[in-house]
Amino acid sequence: MAKRSFFDRLPVVHQLRQSVGLQRGMLVAGLVLTAVFLLVAILAPWLAPYSYNQLRGPDGLFGAQQPPSPEHLLGTTVGGYDVLSRTIWGAQTALFVVVVAIALSVFIGILLGLISGYIGGWLDRVLVVIADAIYSFPSLLLAIVAAIAVSGGQSGLVPGVLSAAIAITVVFIPQYLRVVRAEVVRVKSEAFVESAKVIGASTWRIMFRHVLRNSTRSLPLIVTLNASEAIATLAALGFLGFGIEPTAAAEWGYDLKESIGDVSAGIWWTAIPPGTAIVLAILGVTLIGESLNDLADPRLRARRRAAKQTPADAVAASQPVAREFMGEVE
């Protein structure tokens, strides 16, 4: 078999080559939407016509609730901000929170899961009980409590991003802990771990060099699914008034909350852009996560391989099985 190139071994590229039909379409759509979200977030300073907190232009104040015009393609908000600029800058805020929250969750969750699964004993029982206790609370309620505890509900950009990320991290850590712990419990009984113990390797070397490497294969699936949940949780915190102050950063949930009164007055342009941005960002990441989750199922892979086989391939594949069966009968 020819050795695959580095490009072909990349996780998303490898999964994309495995997918067929509707599954490939979902994965491609998710990748496109997520790529647009990332590009908009990264290029926000150059794409947005105005700053997220700008109220005045060369001709004076923008004005509140102004309809779409050449100067403001999506109009202005009730606070007098440019809707298009706030929507573009909101992607950058969402990306900051998602990256920080996922990084903290992965690091802390993997570390606790590794220690819990490998060492076991009373420490394992305590960590599992704490994780179950956190699971018993509604995730949004827990995020609200964490946001209030960290920043008092509202704050500037850096404190607000950190408080929202920490609030989301508290919800996500038990998921990584339980997944990694289950894999560690399975891996630590393998022969190569026993061999490492025999040759005198230290406990920490075995944990981080041998066990950890073989216990994180399913984490990319959880990361993609949690990224969409992080965007939704951030939007919910902003909608409920526990997010980032509008003068410190643009946040889709806050803008959506401020547009509630506009909708009843027939002013549509302040609600549709941030709401659409939330839906598309969550949809893109969710499609990637669900597609990767399906492609990781060996039963679905077997079905796809069977669907791609021609009748001649099926007959050729069945001949060795038939000969083996006849040999057993004889």
Automatic annotation (TrEMBL):
GO cellular component: plasma membrane
Compartment(s) of residence: Cell membrane
InterPro entries referenced in this protein's UniProt entry, alphabetically: BP-dependent_transpt_permease (IPR050366), MetI-like (IPR000515), MetI-like_sf (IPR035906), OppC_N (IPR025966)
Gene3D superfamilies, per database record: MetI-like
Annotated TM spans: 26-48, 94-119, 126-150, 156-177, 219-244, 267-289
Name of a matching Pfam family: OppC_N
Keyword presence, Ribosomal protein: no
Entry-linked PROSITE patterns: ABC_TM1
Bilayer topology annotation: Multi-pass membrane protein
Domain ABC transmembrane type-1: residue ranges: 91-289
Main location: membrane
Family from the record: Belongs to the binding-protein-dependent transport system permease family.
Protein known as: Peptide/nickel transport system permease protein
Organism: Microbacterium immunditiarum
